Amino acid sequence: MAQSLELLLLQFLMPDNEARRQAEDQIKRLVRDPQVVPSLIHQIRTAKTPNVRQLSAVLLRKKITGHWPKLPDELRHLVKHYLIESVITDYRLSIHIVYGFHLLIFSCLMISSFSFPS
């Protein structure tokens, strides 16, 4: 799925409106699958094109924002770990801003799902 996802994300970023629309339709179908989360993380970590990494981060945020408390602990840990790693290792400022914003959102989600003792 990872390689086909990268190709779809690249197609989505193309200037051709018809190609973009087709890619968008396929991406909408793909993001319904829970297994897309690890694939998006893989794209954030390994895609050669910075715009693909950035688009993957945006799609990941949209996918899990409403579902964060329902995600398995292992998957939540994976998301946190690789986003932090990406902030550290990616050298592009625009990507840092996107990752930082996503980390802020995930932090708020973690705090809101944490139950404090009375």
UniProtKB/TrEMBL annotation:
Keywords associated with the record: Membrane, Transmembrane, Transmembrane helix
Transmembrane segments: 97-116
Any one GO BP annotation for this protein: intracellular protein transport
Taxonomic superkingdom: Eukaryota
Domain Importin N-terminal: 23-89
GO molecular function: small GTPase binding
PROSITE patterns: IMPORTIN_B_NT
InterPro entries in the record: ARM-like (IPR011989), ARM-type_fold (IPR016024), Importin-beta_N (IPR001494)
Protein name (database record): Armadillo-like helical
